[in-house]
Design goal:
45% of the residues lie in helices and 21% in strands. By secondary structure, it is an alpha/beta fold. The chain has two domains: 69 residues, no CATH class; 115 residues, Zincin-like (2-Layer Sandwich), CATH 3.30.2010.10. Helix 3 packs across helix 4.
Length: 190
């Protein structure tokens, strides 16, 4: 890998690879640019390709910058506080809701996932992000019920939604809309 400083595009990581057949360009969320190009191509061709995509690169960087502004941030210390609270709240709530509604699950994991609030594997192992602790309690329970419903239906087919909707008093769509207004925060780098 080499790094090229381009007058318009900034620093570009350039990787020559025998596994790629064409020039690939990636803009990372932090704005850095990476070009991967095949062995039969040259660095100058790869740079020329990036220059031809300047408008797309700038638009993508702008989009990521705007998305970054819309995400809340949290410090590492706050994450540890959430982790402690999650260890107290999540296992008891999952166990209580499972018992109340007749669900069983294989295991429970509290994760620090940034891409989803929760998940359920094919063997009924549930994972809940510690960041649910930032949500109101009714949304935390909604997420947990969502994952418990996946222990019966491992998809989002009609039967899954009927079950979940029945457990939340016919408010599944309303709760989903409310949940979409919340974002998992990014951890501040200090």
């Amino acid at each position: 890998m080499s790094v090229v400083e381009h007058p318009e595009l900034g620093l570009i990581e350039c990787v020559r690879s025998m596994r790629t057949r064409s020039i690939r360009l990636v803009v990372r969320r932090n704005g850095t640019l990476r070009i991967t190009y095949p062995l039969f191509s040259s660095l100058s061709k790869a740079i020329a390709f990036a220059e031809s995509k300047t408008q797309w690169i700038n638009a993508t960087r702008e989009k990521f910058e705007q998305q970054g502004k819309s995400y809340p941030t949290i410090t590492r210390h706050e994450v540890e506080q959430l982790r402690r609270a999650a260890r107290e709240y999540i296992p008891l709530t999952v166990k209580s809701l499972a018992k109340r509604h007749g669900f069983s699950y294989r295991s429970l994991r509290i994760s620090s996932a940034h891409t989803r609030w929760g998940s359920c594997s094919g063997n009924n192992s549930i994972s809940i992000s510690l960041f649910v602790m930032l949500l109101p309690e009714h949304l935390r329970e909604f997420i947990i019920l969502h994952e418990l419903c996946h222990t019966h239906h491992h998809n989002h087919a009609a039967a899954f939604h009927q079950l979940l909707n029945s457990l939340v008093g016919g408010r599944e769509n309303e709760l989903n809309r409310e949940l979409k207004r919340h974002r998992i925060p990014r951890i501040e780098e200090i």
